[in-house]
Design a protein that fits this description.
about 210 residues, mainly alpha, Arc Repressor Mutant, subunit A, Tetracycline Repressor, domain 2, 10 helices, elongated
Length: about 210
């Protein structure tokens, strides 16, 4: 019988996997805090707790990871917007609640300040133009959601039929994006609430 040395090293098995959702959440938070271009691959792998090869194998390149992180944000921390717009509320009340909720969410201590969609990637190098365009498309989708909610208000009779839906939607979105920028700059929750209340004074009369 062949003698087997019990101390001999055995071939390594498959390395243990990692929690993909947790790694993606950590990537999201780094991108949210730094933006696409300022977050380096080295920082991403350290934050995610994985090797570069694991990152590429599980998520693709940096741009693909960012796209998935953006989806993760929209489905997670940024998911408060659409339920408020879909709620059975008067149109003005819906947007008042949206700004109140935004003031809370954008200033939470357990996550980066501001909105990942609103506050990042307004400018990119030519190499990252695809990322900039993808984020701009997300913002446009939000404007369209605002327009749809305003049209519902017209149909229900709590908004005048002759309002400029496109202009009002973009005004409301501009305020929302401004809240994000102010939050990034350190504005307090109370200050953001005051901005939202001030903006609602421009609400059109029925």
């Amino acid at each position: 019988m062949e003698n087997v040395d019990p101390t001999a090293r055995r071939p390594r098995g498959r390395p243990p996997g990692f929690d993909r959702e947790l790694a993606l959440d950590k990537a999201m938070r780094l991108f949210w805090d730094r933006g696409y271009e300022a977050a380096s691959m080295d920082e991403l792998t350290v934050a995610m707790g994985i090797s570069p090869s694991s990152l590429y194998g599980a998520f693709g390149g940096k741009a693909q990871l960012y796209a998935q992180a953006l989806d993760h944000y929209v489905a997670g921390p940024g998911a408060y917007v659409l339920p408020i717009l879909a709620a059975d509320l008067p149109t003005r009340t819906a947007f008042e609640r949206l700004y109140e909720t935004a003031a809370f969410e954008l200033t939470r201590a357990d996550q980066p300040r501001g909105c990942m969609v609103a506050a990042t990637e307004t400018q990119c190098s030519p190499a990252a133009e695809g990322v900039r365009a993808a984020v701009a498309e997300r913002r446009l989708q939000a404007v369209r959601a605002y327009e749809d909610r305003l049209r519902r208000g017209i149909e229900s009779g709590d908004l005048a039929a002759d309002i400029d839906v496109g202009a009002l939607a973009r005004f409301l979105m501009t305020v929302q994006q401004g809240l994000s920028v102010q939050a990034r700059d350190g504005a307090s929750r109370e200050e953001l609430l005051a901005v939202g209340r001030t903006a609602m004074r421009a609400w059109p009369e029925t």
